[in-house]
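Session log. Operator J.P. requested a structure for one protein chain; no other inputs attached. Running the standard single-chain path with token output.
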Amino acid sequence: MGLLEGKTALVTGGAGGIGLASATRLAEEGAHVFITGRRKDELEAAAGKIGPAATPVVGDIADPADLDRLYATVSSRGAGLDVLFANASVAEFMPLAEITEEHFDTLFGINARGTLFTVQKALPLLNEGASVILNGSTNVDAGAEAFGVYAATKAATRSFARTWANELKGRGIRVNTVTPGPTDTPGLAGLDPAPDKATGFRGHLATQVPLGRLGRPEEVAAAVAFLASDQSSFTTGASLYVDGGMNQI
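Structure written below.
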């Protein structure tokens, strides 16, 4: 028996990276997992990797109509929702002097606004004792150059988790944040300021981690599975750092 046998889960941004690793782990623990993302081909390929325990639903969390369609699909299964991992987010470097309205609106539209309505629209489906997990970032604490807007969106996410944990406690719903450090995902590679050159971007990030390497998506997924399961039944409003000690030492 897995930790989530018979449960129903949803992972946003589930087509790759931490989202796919987490959806895979939740399915391995016995859950039926809905995954959503904007790119149909990648999403369907991800569902194929997970197997029959996964249902892909194409959509953008920044679009309320897409969220409504997503939750109509989840509702049609008739089992409610036991685990929600609001993972979908975007990142982009932009120094203060160059920040545009488009940059600000895109990051806040997906990372903060999209996360808020992902959780709000799930409320009627969340079963008693459900677990809501938000995807955070060590950049909330770090003050990394040119990452100000992204870090601010993740600070909003962290604040949401605390508030929602308090608001939903009467239903036995726990809300926590998983906070990854630099993790070896396609999204991280996409942040390389000079991808066509040997910049050593990933290697540089690894030197900032006390354990001396980047994290693996599967390591973050293990923390997500813990927060999703009854093994974390006395944990709510918390931020679980999976950062190799980066923000701890």
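Operator note: The two ends are 37 Å apart (CA to CA).
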